Predict the structure.
Amino acid sequence: MIKNHQPYRRAVQISVLLILIAIPLLNLLKFDLIQGTLCSVGTKKVEVTCALGAVQSMLANKEVYAPLLLSSSFFLLLAVLFGRVFCSWVCPQHVASEI
């Protein structure tokens, strides 16, 4: 039996998008524990970056930046273990493009 995961997927996508909208607003209020963009999010010490965004950045700069590779390793590991779960459930690019 195939289950319809679309409502859950949409709820996760909207939640992630709301969190990413809230981060800059919280930073304006001097609550800067979490910082981020559409391609990366993290604290002052730990950051995770979308692997595609990391590759695009390094290609644009024409240099390999080791900390950027390290920060994208979390999502690469997630993709190896669970397939396209990040891109299809968490990545805010899909929700933004559908809006």
The radius of gyration is 15 Å. The chain is about 65% helix and 10% strand.
